[in-house]
Design a protein that fits this description.
This protein has about 240 residues and is an alpha+beta fold. About 15% of the residues lie in helices and about 25% in strands.
Length: about 240
């Protein structure tokens, strides 16, 4: 995932979501060219408890009922994503999907194509070069040993659309990208299960763009949180009309 807003100014972000409050400290705290979920980075969100403000939550949902730090660390690694098909059923998510939803603004995300036993990283972004609004759920967890409060989130995933079906060809999934025309409905306190389900649909492929990038994004030795991680890189073996 990427949340740098490299081509998007703070003014554009604030106007997009109709939020006039300062974003400057959060913009710096929550930004990154490549965010690895297993690092549990702090990310800018808009949550339904304060829809007129930007907040920062940590990626990897810890359910409110977790009672110790060891269990919390296990849970946050398992809950980076929540499938829309099971989100109403699983104990980790079923209360949050009804009561605690959030929007995660991103300027793009990374996904991998599998081809002949190799993986090829792709960067996917809005065709209009603004932002995607990812749909998420959140929780507030209290460490009983210290009293520290922590807010965390998961990103909802859906079945892949036609474009993502070809890129993410192993699992055929994609993040829930909310329709710009109805994205703020995701934060409504008055949604039924049916209303929520109707918002959890695959985003239209024609509004998305992509290009292949270097394998820097998967490097364990080099810093991947740099602008170069998003730069286009063509792979000759993919240039023969794979799509």
């Amino acid at each position: 995932m990427s949340q740098t807003f490299k081509k998007v100014t703070k003014k554009v972000i604030k106007e997009r979501y109709g939020i006039n409050k300062s974003i400057s400290p959060l913009f710096e705290k929550g930004s990154g060219h490549h965010l690895n979920g297993f690092d549990h980075p702090t990310v800018i969100v808009i949550a339904n408890d304060a829809p007129s403000s930007f907040q920062t939550f940590d990626w990897g949902l810890i359910p409110f009922w977790v009672n110790d730090i060891g269990h919390a660390k296990q849970m946050e690694n398992r809950t980076l994503n929540a499938k829309c098909e099971t989100v109403f059923e699983l104990p980790s998510f079923r209360e949050a999907i009804l009561k605690r939803r959030c929007i995660i603004p991103v300027d793009g995300f990374f996904e991998w194509l599998h081809h002949r036993n190799k993986t090829y990283p792709h960067y996917i972004y809005p065709k209009d070069e603004t932002v995607f609004s990812l749909g998420g759920i959140w929780e507030q967890w209290s460490d009983q040993s210290t009293g520290r409060m922590k807010r965390t989130f998961s990103i909802i995933t859906t079945a892949a659309n036609d474009m993502m079906d070809k890129i993410h060809n192993s699992k055929k999934r994609m993040p829930l990208i909310l329709n710009p025309e109805t994205e703020m409905d995701w934060l409504s306190q008055d949604l039924s299960n049916t209303d929520i389900s109707l918002l959890m649909q695959p985003f239209k492929a024609e509004s998305m763009a992509y290009h292949t990038v270097s394998r820097l994004v998967t490097s364990r030795k080099e810093n991947s949180d740099v602008p170069e991680v998003k730069e286009p890189l063509n792979y000759q073996e993919l240039s023969k009309g794979l799509f």
